[in-house]
Amino acid sequence: MPADSGEATAEGQEKGSTKDDVSPSPQPERSEGVGEGAGGVRLKMRLVHTVRETRQAVTEARAQGRSIGFVPTMGALHAGHLSLIEAARRRDGFVVVSIFVNPTQFGPQEDFAKYPRTLEADCALCREAGVDLVFAPPIEEMYPEGFATTVHVAGVTERMEGLFRPGHFDGVATVVCKLLGIVQPERAYFGQKDYQQLVVVRRMVADLNLPVEVVGCPTVREADGLAMSSRNRYLSAEERTVAPRLYQALRAGAEVLRRGGTGEEAVRRAQEVLVSEPRFRVQYVEAADPETLAPHPQAGRPAVLLAAAFLGETRLIDNLVVE
Ligand code: AMP
Questions:
Q1: Sign of CA dihedral 101, 315, 176, 106
Q2: Which positions are catalytic?
Q3: Which atom of ligand 1 sits closest to the CA of residue 81?
Q4: 81 Cα: distance to centroid of ligand 1 (angstroms)
Q5: Distance (Å) from CA 299 to ligand 1 centroid
Q6: Which residue, by CA, sits nearest to atom 18 of ligand 1?
Q7: Can you give the C-alpha Rg of the chain in angstroms?
Q8: β partners of residue 216
C-alpha cells in the first residue's frame, strides 16, 4: 500500500482511540494529508476516527472561512452517496463524510453483522470525489460505556419503515443528532432514496432547533431504474434482473396519480405490478403527503409513493414523488 494512502485501512479504523480528550494523535495515518498546495487548493483528504480530531479539523476549516457540508453514510459507497458529496462540494468549502455502520438502527434479525464494510475503497472514492475529511469512528467512540440517551421522533416514524423495523428510526435519529453535534455543519445532505428518513431528520432538526440546513438530494438509479443501494450487492444475479420491478411498480402507481387517480388507486396499481413477480414479498406500498407523510393525499395534490419488499433475503425500499 502506498505510504500516502495508509490512512485508509481497516487497521486504521481499529486503532481509533476512544479517548476523545487526549492530545492529538501522533499516528501517521491521522496526521497525514495536511496541505497539498497553497492558494485555495483543496487540502488532501484526511481519515480520522475520533470525535476530537473531527471537531479540531472542522474548527480549523471554519477558521479559514470555509462552510461545512456533511454527508452521513454507513459506507459501501456508490454513485448515490457520491451525488450527495457532489452536492456538498458545490455549496460548501469543507466536506465531511462519516462512515459508521450504526448498530442501534438495525433490528436483532437484520443484517448488521453482514453489512458490507469497505473502508479502504470508500476512502479512495471519497478522496477522488474531493472530500476533505472522513470520520469513521469505532462503535465505542459513538456509544461509550454509560451511553443512555435516545432521540425519538414521534408521528412520522409510526408507519412504513417504522412499523416494519421497530426502533429503527430511534437509532437513526440518535446517531444523526450525535453526528450533527460532532460535525456542526452548515448543511447536511441526505438522499430521497430513504424518503421517510429524510422526513424524520427534518422533523428532528426543526423540533430541536438544530442549526443546520437539511438538503434532500434525488435518488440515483441504475440504468434499469433500480435505486442504488449498498444492499443491492446481496442480490443474486437472478434477483438482480427482477429487482427493477419495484421501481416499475411505483412508476405505474405514479401514472395513476398523474391521471388524477387517488392515492388508494395508485397503491392498488403498484401492488398489482409488484405481485406479478412472485419472488417479491411485499411489506408495504403507500401513498402519502410528501412533506408530512400523512396518508391518503388528496387526488390532484403532490404525493409520494413508498414501497418496501423482500427479494429473497434482501430488503429493498424505493419511492417516487409525484408533483
Ligand atoms: P446509507 O449509507 O445507506 O446510510 O446512506 C447514506 C446516505 O446516502 C443517505 O442519506 C441515503 O439516503 C443516501 N443514499 C443512499 N442511496 C442513495 C441513492 N441511490 N441515491 C441518492 N442518495 C442515496
A1: negative
A2: 81
A3: 8
A4: 5
A5: 29
A6: 80
A7: 20
A8: 190
Q: Which three cell numbers stand for residue 181?
A: 453535534
Distance (angstroms) between ligand 1 centre and the Cα of 307 equals: 16
Separation of CA 146 and ligand 1 centre (Å): 30
Beta-carbon neighbour count of residue 265 at 10 Å? Answer: 16
Residue 298: the pLDDT is: 82
41 pLDDT higher than 50: no
- Report residues whose beta carbon is within 6 angstroms of any ligand 1 atom: 73-74, 80-81, 83-84, 190-191, 193-194, 217, 219-220, 227-230
Rounded to an integer, the average pLDDT of 186-204 is 98
Yes or no: say if 74 and 104 are a contact pair by the CB < 8 Å rule: no
In CATH terms, the superfamily for domain 3-217 is HUPs (3.40.50.620)
Closest CA to 36 of 135, 136, 134, 127: 127
Answer yes or no: pTM beyond 0.85.
yes
Q: Which of 25-29, 37-41, 53-57 has the lowest mean pLDDT?
A: 25-29
Q: Decide if pLDDT at 2 tops 50.
A: no
Kindly give the number of the ligand 1 atom that is closest to the alpha carbon of 74. 2
Q: pLDDT class for 319, splitting at 50, 70, 90?
A: very high
* Per-residue model confidence (pLDDT) at position 27: 35
Q: What is the pLDDT of residues 217-275, one digit of tens each?
A: 999 999 999 999 999 999 999 999 999 999 999 999 999 999 999 999 999 999 999 99
Cell 472522513: give the residue. 134
Task: Please tell me the distance from the alpha carbon of residue 172 to that of residue 161, in angstroms, as a whole number.
Answer: 12
How many CB atoms sit inside 10 A of residue 245's CB? 21
Q: Closest ligand 1 atom to the C-alpha of 83? A: 21
Domain ranges of the chain: 3-217, 230-322
Kindly report, residue by residue over 63-121, the tens digit of the pLDDT: 999 999 999 999 999 999 999 999 999 999 999 999 999 999 999 999 999 999 999 99
Q: What SS3 class is residue 272?
A: helix
Domain covering 230-322 assigned CATH 3.30.565.10 in the classification: no
**DSSP codes of every residue in 119-140:** HHHHHHHHHHHT-SEEE---HH
Q: Which three cell numbers stand for residue 270?
A: 403498484
